[in-house]
Design goal:
CATH superfamily of the largest domain: HUPs
Shape: globular
CATH class of the largest domain: Alpha Beta
Number of helices: 14
Helix content: 25-40%
Strand content: 15-25%
Number of domains: 3
Distance between the termini: 43 Å
CATH architecture of the largest domain: 3-Layer(aba) Sandwich
CATH topology of the largest domain: Rossmann fold
Strand order of the largest sheet: 2-1-3-4-9-8-7-5-6
Bound molecules: xanthosine-5'-monophosphate
Amino acid sequence: MILIIDFGSQYNQLIARRVREAHVYCEIHPPGISIDQIKVLAPEGIILSGGPASIYEKNSPRVDQGIFELGIPVLGICYGMQCMVDALGGQVNRAEKREYGFAELHSKDATGIFHGVPKETKCWMSHGDAVGRLPRGFRVTASTPTTRVAATENPAKKVYGLQFHPEVAHTPMGKRMLKNFLFRVCNCKKTWTMKSFIKDSVSDIRSLVKDKKVILGLSGGVDSSVTALLLHQAIGKQLTCIFVDNGLLRQGEAERVKGLFKKHFKVRLRFVNAKRQFLKGLTGVVDPEKKRRIIGRTFIEAFEIEARKLQGVELLAQGTLYPDIIESRSAFGGPTAVIKSHHNVGGLPRNMKLKLIEPLKHLFKDEVRVLGKELGLPDDLIWRQPFPGPGLAIRIIADVTPARLSILRKVDAIVLEEIKENNLYRKLWQSFAVLLPLKSVGIMGDQRTYEHIAAIRAVTSTDAMTADWAKLPHSLLGRISNRIINEVRGVNRVVYDISSKPPSTIEWE
Ligand code: XMP
């Protein structure tokens, strides 16, 4: 494995993704990691990530000096390189000229990290500090017109440094450089594949669970579905999944989950029809945050009642992913991870003394999808767009009633059908309908109508933190609008939401 030390760069998850794409397992840890902890991990190489600090500032994050005495190859990237230079007796100063963006990189020779890299190439820079004096035994291996020490090495000690970011796509030869570090310097083997992950996880899960029983809240989303199948493969009938039908799901969704997991995969599944409780709780509620609270609480109650019916359950499984864990610990904090209370399944049941089991906690989303495919999940589930826990309740901009839910379900189904038909489903982060139970006047045939408005929302995004409204073809919007007004009784007007996030949000509530 490769150990990545996290100095807080916005790119450090990308370093991890690049290493794993090269089929080498890696983990990200904070700078406070001790030498003893590193020895337990036994990495074949260490990468020091970039970060926003300046090494000459007081309290800037550092690593234990002992790292450089372990005989393990080290690659420092940006701040990581500066930290390394400083630790080994060199000097880092504020750069005369800051360097942001593309730079022409000239390397001295095609050895070490630069094996197979053209002498002239481009790289992506983002720094305000620069190496002034190198530690003894180091030499400059590449420069840019602005930065003399754009790369350095001490091959005898197997220590390398890059001032630029090899992990970003803007450094075209970056993947090659990282692979040189992994395979030429560290002699890593390509052992990280989803097949090997399944094999190792299955045996880990079995030795952790032994003969105990495990429960899992299955939502029908990718993460909980993959968790269910992985656990099912490891412990079969010792796993019980609980699916709570809150009545706020899209058309056919509950039946699809039931059919797939119960009938097809033969997973032990308890299907809880809690529609009445949810609707009752939501009666007359208009405030979005109140809706969320009621839904969260009702979910936990329904889940707990069902879980208590099962005798002797000791473990609760969750589909927590690696970014949840990395993001929840501070870049400069201790090594213990504080796990965010994620609302994958609406929160942890209270007062249930259950031990957590999180078999995906070291995986990135793209790895979870590959794993899902390997475990036999159908493509439409693997590539399902995110769907919020509170479901259609936060897409009815008023209080939730069965009649409104029924209208929205039909409208939403048309939107999804058309988006899929036009091969846009995977390109969009989310695409859905919102019901505005305002009434406006229309005319159908010779009749005056006075009905609701439906809004279409489609956005592109990479992480939901920011999103752009999708420039859907007018012909498609026209077809969606026609179909909704013709096919769904209760809607006589369709509008398209052309707001981006920020300042708007993706959901309307
Ligand atoms: P917003 O509307 O804040 O949404 O731009 C960002 C992403 O989060 C989803 N979302 C939720 N997911 N419970 C969830 O599980 C919620 O209460 C919730 N609210 C928003 C939303 O669908 C989008 O992907």
